Amino acid sequence: MKFRYQKFIIGDHDPTKPLVARPFIPVYLHGNGKKTVSPYFALLDSGADRVIFPGDLAVEVGISNIETGEPEPTIGIAGQKADVYYHKLALQVLGDGKTLPTDVGFSKDIVLPILGRSFFHHFRAVVFAEGKEEVELKN
Amino acid sequence: MTIKHFMIDPNRIDLSKVMQDLRPFEGQWVAISEKSHIVANGTTYGETVSKVSRADEVILLKVPPLGYSLAPLEG
Q1: Contact B3 A76 (CB under 8 A)
Q2: Which CATH architecture has domain A2-138?
Q3: Whole-model pTM?
């Protein structure tokens, strides 16, 4: 499965400056007999250890209180701490029928869904083709 | 492997086309159509998807702070 990078601005918008390309993957979240009805973009982040999603996604799979999950200390590269609670759920990549059992952390402190290396483990290889600005998930 | 069995092709979406349109929605969720149009928004995923008539024809995006570089979060 190949996905093109999505491009974002950095700094004040200046048409002469290049956009930054980021590997976003569309996924569904499964759990407790439920599934998000639409896929959503999550950032593929090889520098993150785990899968962490914004807390409001939890209710979509029947979790009304994220703090019922397993807490784990989490810190960003700038030293910012986040309260993250892990639940045993599953992910599905848009276009692939397989569901991938994954510990998913929820936090009210993060600004976008991230797919860390615990997601990478489901694939034989994850290829970042920077020249093509696309990422490939190889089964 | 080719991508198949879904209603929307994510590789047709080009967020750079709507980057300025995304600015008012920083921190919110938006629903994006295959033509890279913003068709709904809300403060939560659930609120946003509830405004979409065809849930299988959009992909949702939680709009990150625009204009910033991103650095990894360590678990």
Answers
A1: no
A2: Beta Barrel (2.40)
A3: 0.93
